[in-house]
C-alpha cells in the first residue's frame, strides 16, 4: 500500500511539473507571437497619431495609413512603416486599429474599393476606436466576421493629452473570448480598458459619456447667461460658481 501511494504521488508530481512547463511554454510562445504581430493603424489625426506612436514606442511593429501623407511621414519617422491603402493594411496586418472621424469614414476604410475587407486575412483582430453610430459598427462587425476575422468597437475618452501620454480610457464592445488579447494591445495606448459587452456596447457607453459632458457644458453656459442677464459680470459668476463647487 505504501509503495503504491508513493508511486502515485511521484506520478502526480511529475505530471504537475509537466503541466507547469507546458503552460510556461505556451505563455512564452503567445507573448513572442504578440511581439512579432504586425499592427496596422489607419487614421493619424490628433488622436490617432499619438496612439500609433505609442505602439511604436512600446516595441510593436506598426504599419500606418492616412490620406494625409505628411501625417504618415511623421509616424514613419518615429519607427513605423507606411502603407498606400487600407487594402494593403488588411493584407499585411495581424491586428488592425482604426481611428477615423465618423461612420462614413469607417465604412469607406472597411468597405471601399481599396478597403480592408478586400484583403482581410482570417483570424485578424480588428479594433475600431472611432466614435460612430453603434448600428454601423454592428454592421461592419458582421461583415468582418463573415471574412473569418474578429471585430471590436473600442472608442476612447481622455482627449489629446491622454492620447499623447498613453493614458486613454477604452470602452470595448465585442466577444469576451478575445478581450484579454485586445486588452494586451490597447494597454500600449491606454491606462483603463473596460469590457462593456457585445459589439456596439462600447460605443453606447462612449455616447452616454459624451451626453453627460454635453449636459454639463450646457448647464455651465446657461448659468453664465443667467448671471449676465441680471447685470452680473461674467467673471464674478464664474468665480462664485468655482468657489461653490
Sum this structure up briefly.
The protein is of the alpha/beta class and 245 residues long. The protein contains 10 helices and 9 strands. The chain has a 6-stranded parallel β-sheet with strand order 3-2-1-4-5-6, sandwiched between helices.
Molecular structure report:
- This protein is of the alpha/beta class and about 240 residues long.
- About 55% of the residues lie in helices and about 15% in strands.
- The protein contains 10 helices and 9 strands.
- It has helices at about 1-35, 50-55, 70-75, 85-90, 105-110, 135-145, 160-165, 180-185, 200-230, 235-245; strands spanning about 40, 60-65, 80, 95-100, 125-130, 150-155, 155, 170-175, 190-195.
- Helix 2 (about 50-55) packs parallel to helix 7.
- It is globular, with a radius of gyration of 24 Å.
List keywords for this structure.
245 residues; alpha/beta; six-stranded parallel sheet; three-stranded mixed sheet; 9 strands; 16% strand
Total beta-strand segments: 9
Task: Supply the helix-strand structural class.
Answer: alpha/beta
Query: What integer is the average pLDDT?
Result: 88
Question: Which H/E pattern describes the elements?
Answer: HEHEHEHEHEHEEHEHEHH
State the share of residues found in helices, binned by percent. Answer: 55-70%
Shape: globular
Number of helices: 10
Strand content: 15-25%
Question: How do the strands and helices of this protein lay out in sequence?
Answer:
Layout: H1 2-36, E1 38-42, H2 48-57, E2 61-65, H3 69-76, E3 81-82, H4 86-92, E4 95-98, H5 103-111, E5 125-128, H6 134-146, E6 150-153, E7 156-157, H7 159-165, E8 168-173, H8 179-186, E9 190-197, H9 201-229, H10 234-244
Parallel strand pairs: 1-2, 1-4, 2-3, 4-5, 5-6, 8-9
Antiparallel strand pairs: 7-8
Helix pairs in contact: 2-7
Amino acid at each position: 500500500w505504501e509503495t503504491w501511494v508513493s508511486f502515485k504521488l511521484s506520478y502526480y508530481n511529475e505530471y504537475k511539473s509537466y503541466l507547469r512547463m507546458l503552460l510556461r511554454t505556451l505563455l512564452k510562445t503567445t507573448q513572442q507571437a504578440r511581439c512579432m504581430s504586425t499592427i496596422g493603424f489607419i487614421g493619424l489625426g490628433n488622436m490617432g497619431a499619438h496612439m500609433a506612436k505609442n505602439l511604436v514606442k512600446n516595441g510593436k511593429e506598426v504599419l500606418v495609413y492616412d490620406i494625409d501623407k505628411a501625417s504618415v511621414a511623421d509616424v514613419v519617422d518615429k519607427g513605423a512603416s507606411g502603407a498606400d491603402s487600407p487594402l494593403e493594411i488588411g493584407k499585411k496586418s495581424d491586428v488592425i486599429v482604426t481611428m477615423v472621424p465618423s461612420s462614413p469614414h469607417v465604412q469607406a476604410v472597411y468597405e471601399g474599393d481599396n478597403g480592408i475587407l478586400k484583403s482581410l486575412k482570417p483570424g485578424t483582430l480588428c479594433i475600431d476606436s472611432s466614435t460612430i453610430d453603434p448600428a454601423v459598427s454592428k454592421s461592419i462587425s458582421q461583415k468582418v466576421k463573415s471574412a473569418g476575422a474578429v471585430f471590436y468597437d473600442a472608442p476612447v475618452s481622455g482627449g489629446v493629452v491622454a492620447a499623447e501620454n498613453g493614458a486613454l480610457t477604452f470602452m470595448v464592445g465585442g466577444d469576451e473570448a478575445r478581450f484579454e488579447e485586445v486588452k494586451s494591445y490597447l494597454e500600449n495606448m491606454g491606462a483603463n480598458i473596460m469590457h462593456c459587452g457585445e459589439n456596439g456596447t462600447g460605443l453606447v457607453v462612449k455616447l452616454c459619456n459624451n451626453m453627460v459632458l454635453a449636459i454639463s457644458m450646457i448647464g455651465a453656459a446657461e448659468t453664465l447667461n443667467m448671471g449676465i442677464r441680471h447685470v452680473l459680470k461674467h467673471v464674478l459668476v464664474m468665480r462664485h460658481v468655482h468657489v461653490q463647487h
